[in-house]
């Protein structure tokens, strides 16, 4: 038990960690109410070690069973497999609390099948300590190694530091997915240690981690590997949204070490430029989904680099990249004919000519967002309607040049339309009703109070 606890507890050979509840929260143990212990100073949630549920001395006295005692509680009639299935839907802290109910639940809650994932949330949780206690318990059968743990999700925990990531790196060699979104106290060095010690890591979410500027192997790991050691990092999904200090050089290093990337999100990475995208395309030729939304330094030259992905690219977000015009759209449309999703909201340089080229070359397009593109008019809608029959989602929010006529042309040809956003557009009630009649399953988002 840590020094910040006011408990003095016996530690048995098979301890179970419990994520402490806030003060005055009641748990039930062996059918009786039992108040949990908590720090008398703060209401923070911390990892504690508890023994298996034990019978009190008074409970050991043999008495004749009453009729009520003979009646089994409904939950006790459930099979072990059913309870395990129920426990599999609980977050880590509740699973630890369930382990305190009775001896049967204790054994079931520590079934290895329930510990492929650890999920922790909360700003005040002492995550470093929770991870240390949990991994220690999970390493009992295989000292110092958690072979069953594949996913660790820690979201919005400001108290997660490099020490917590070092614990994961040392104890979880089979880790495949790591999400630390919003944990802004972790640094590059700890991530280097994780990717170096967890060779199977495929999914990494560091969105909102403002200190992260690069993903790479440690120097020690690089020396042990061949000159092509970059290919040893198997990350395929990387989310670096809101990593504000990411620059072209850092992106260059990431690309050189993570050549198997298929999904990359860099929303609001404002220091990334066309040069960074050039580095990216040199190494990562298998990218299917790419987001550079709000990367305002990216221009048409960057789109020329992205177009080198050709038919691999299925999803592209360039929202609010004001330096991208019809020229950049033409590059994408010409070479990325398999594109299914395009978000170009706020790209005010896009006109009907860009939409025409896009519609004629990317006929399999299913989702398009061109909101706040004031130069797109009904003529652009006509090109979409005559070429993109599979369109399911269309956002035209704040497109002041589009009228009900363009909308009716789309509705008459795109019967699969499921979502239409025409907020802040000058669309008549008759046009909206026309859309509703022709696209039965379409949800219309609008700002016309006369249409309901």
UniProtKB/TrEMBL annotation:
Q: Which UniProt keywords apply?
A: Cell cycle, Cell division, Cytoplasm, Cytoskeleton, Leucine-rich repeat, Mitosis, Repeat, Ubl conjugation pathway
Q: Which GO terms describe its biological process?
A: cell division; protein polyubiquitination; SCF-dependent proteasomal ubiquitin-dependent protein catabolic process
**Name the record gives this protein:** F-box/LRR-repeat protein 7
- Show the Pfam families listed in the entry: DUF7885, F-box-like
In this chain the F-box domain maps to 72-118
**Associated pathway:** Protein modification; protein ubiquitination
Its localization reads: Cytoplasm, Cytoskeleton, Microtubule organizing center, Centrosome
Source species, please?
Answer: Callorhinchus milii (Ghost shark)
Where does the source fall among the domains of life?
A: Eukaryota
The UniProt function text for this chain reads:
Substrate recognition component of a SCF (SKP1-CUL1-F-box protein) E3 ubiquitin-protein ligase complex. During mitosis, it mediates the ubiquitination and subsequent proteasomal degradation of AURKA, causing mitotic arrest. It also regulates mitochondrial function by mediating the ubiquitination and proteasomal degradation of the apoptosis inhibitor BIRC5.
User: Known Gene3D superfamilies for this protein?
Assistant: 1.20.1280.50, Ribonuclease Inhibitor
UniProt similarity note: Belongs to the FBXL7 family.
Q: Does the keyword Cell cycle apply?
A: yes
Q: How does it assemble?
A: Part of the SCF (SKP1-CUL1-F-box) E3 ubiquitin-protein ligase complex SCF(FBXL7) composed of CUL1, SKP1, RBX1 and FBXL7. Interacts with AURKA; interaction takes place during mitosis but not in interphase. Interacts with BIRC5; this interaction allows BIRC5 to be polyubiquitinated by the SCF(FBXL7) E3 ubiquitin-protein ligase complex.
- Gene Ontology CC terms: centrosome; SCF ubiquitin ligase complex
Q: Which InterPro entries match?
A: F-box-like_dom_sf, F-box_dom, FBXL15_LRR, Leu-rich_rpt_Cys-con_subtyp, LRR_dom_sf
Which PROSITE patterns does the record cross-reference, listed alphabetically? FBOX
């Amino acid at each position: 038990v840590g020094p910040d606890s006011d408990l003095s507890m016996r530690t048995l050979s098979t301890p179970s960690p419990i994520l402490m509840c806030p003060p005055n929260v009641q748990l039930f143990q062996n059918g009786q109410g039992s108040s949990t212990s908590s720090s008398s100073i703060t209401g923070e949630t911390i990892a504690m070690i508890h023994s298996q549920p034990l019978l009190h001395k008074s409970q050991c006295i043999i008495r004749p069973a009453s009729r009520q005692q003979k009646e089994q509680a409904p939950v006790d009639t459930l099979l072990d497999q059913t309870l395990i299935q129920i426990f599999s839907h609980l977050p880590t802290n509740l699973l630890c609390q369930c382990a305190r109910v009775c001896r049967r639940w204790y054994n079931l809650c520590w079934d290895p099948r329930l510990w492929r994932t650890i999920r922790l949330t909360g700003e005040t949780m002492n995550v470093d300590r929770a991870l240390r206690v949990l991994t220690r318990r999970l390493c009992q059968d295989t000292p110092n190694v958690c072979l069953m743990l594949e996913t660790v999700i820690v979201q919005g925990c400001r108290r997660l530091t490099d020490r917590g990531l070092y614990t994961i790196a040392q104890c979880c060699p089979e880790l495949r997915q790591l999400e630390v979104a919003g944990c802004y106290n972790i640094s590059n060095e700890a991530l280097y240690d994780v990717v170096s010690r967890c060779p199977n890591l495929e999914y990494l979410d560091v969105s909102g981690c403002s200190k992260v500027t690069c993903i790479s192997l440690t120097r020690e790991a690089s020396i042990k590997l061949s000159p092509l050691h970059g290919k040893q990092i198997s990350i395929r999904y990387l989310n670096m949204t809101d990593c504000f200090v990411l620059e072209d050089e850092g992106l260059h290093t990431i690309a050189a070490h993570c050549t198997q990337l298929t999904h990359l999100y860099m929303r609001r990475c404002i220091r990334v430029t066309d040069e960074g995208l050039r580095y990216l395309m040199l190494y990562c030729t298998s990218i299917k989904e790419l987001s550079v939304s709000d990367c305002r330094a990216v221009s048409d030259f960057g789109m020329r680099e992205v177009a080198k992905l050709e038919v691999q690219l299925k999803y592209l977000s360039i929202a609010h990249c004001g330096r991208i015009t019809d020229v950049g759209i033409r590059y994408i449309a010409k070479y990325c004919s398999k594109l299914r999703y395009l978000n170009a909201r706020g790209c005010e340089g896009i006109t009907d000519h860009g939409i025409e080229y896009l519609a004629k070359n990317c006929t399999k397009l299913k989702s398009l967002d061109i909101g706040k593109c004031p130069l797109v008019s009904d003529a652009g809608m006509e090109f979409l309607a005559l070429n993109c029959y599979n369109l399911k989602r269309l956002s035209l929010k704040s497109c002041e040049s589009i009228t009900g006529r363009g909308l009716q042309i789309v509705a008459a040809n795109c019967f699969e339309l499921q979502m239409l956003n025409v907020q802040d557009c000058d669309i008549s009630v008759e046009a909206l009703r026309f859309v509703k009649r022709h696209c039965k399953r379409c949800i219309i988002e609008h700002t016309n109070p006369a249409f309901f």
